[in-house]
Specification:
Elements lengths: L1 E5 L2 E5 L10 E3 L7 H14 L5 E4 L8 H7 L3 E12 L10 E5 L4 H11 L3 H12 L5 E8 L2 E11 L2 E9 L8 H15 L4 E7 L3 H10 L2 E10 L3
Parallel strand pairs: 9-10
Antiparallel strand pairs: 1-2, 2-3, 4-11, 5-10, 5-11, 6-7, 7-8, 8-9
Helix pairs in contact: 5-6
């Protein structure tokens, strides 16, 4: 909901909903020294009652930033795999029955936040993020006997499509709905003109990683977070 470009670092602020939307991404080299910049970032997050969080990748700028944060007491969290799939190098099987919206309409949103089991606070922050999307998107519910069993959304950026927030009803898991949701979303984004799909999954989420790898997603790189608790 708020974003600051500060001397090569992008500072994202979204009322604490998800690390990705509330962290510093060190994109390119700047001019100020890292210790000064870290202190400025910490001040911005503390002023909003948020933990300072940095998103780390193999391309951090400066390269020694991860080590600097560790020395300052930042702990490593949420090692995440970014994987991609060439949509024209995979055969998409028959897909499931879905309902699709181009905006996060109430009919999708109310059911989706129940599937995600979000708190009232998280619901408000999440809605603000979705309402301010600046690129085309598709919001999907997978149906079984006319009842929603899984959901997610896809963001379109040119020929790329990012898959986000994939979730299955907790009482319907391990029945193939997660895989069916994936195939269905991939079929939809390919029809919309995408030739490459990508997603992000935490390293320790073995069930989801197994599904994605069996479909054909290949790891591109990993990122992780450095978080200061005190």
């Amino acid at each position: 909901m708020q974003q600051v470009l500060y001397d090569g670092w992008v500072i994202r602020l979204a009322n604490g909903y998800t690390r990705r939307a509330n962290s510093v991404s060190p994109i390119y080299p700047g001019h100020a020294d890292s210790e000064t910049k870290i202190a400025v970032c910490e001040g911005l997050y503390r002023a909003r009652g948020l933990r300072p969080v940095f998103k780390m990748t193999p391309l951090n700028q400066p390269p020694q930033l991860d080590a600097l944060l560790a020395v300052r007491g930042y702990t490593l969290e949420a090692m995440t795999v970014v994987a991609s799939l060439d949509l024209y190098q995979v055969v998409l099987p028959e897909t499931g029955s879905v309902k699709v919206w181009t905006r996060p309409e109430k009919a999708w949103f109310d059911i989706y936040v129940q599937l995600k089991d979000l708190s009232d606070y998280e619901i408000g922050a999440f809605k603000n993020i979705l309402d301010n999307l600046a690129v085309p998107a598709r919001f999907v519910l997978l149906m079984d006997d006319n009842a929603p069993v899984a959901g997610g959304f896809a963001i379109h950026e040119g020929k790329m499509a990012g898959l986000f927030g994939l979730v299955t009803d907790v009482e319907k898991r391990n029945r193939g709905f997660g895989r069916l949701l994936m195939w269905t979303l991939l079929e939809r984004v390919r029809k919309a003109g995408a030739n490459m799909a990508y997603l992000q999954v935490e390293e320790d989420n073995s069930p989801a990683r197994h599904i994605y790898e069996s479909i054909g997603f290949c790891e591109v790189y990993r990122y992780w977070y450095r978080t200061l608790e005190s």
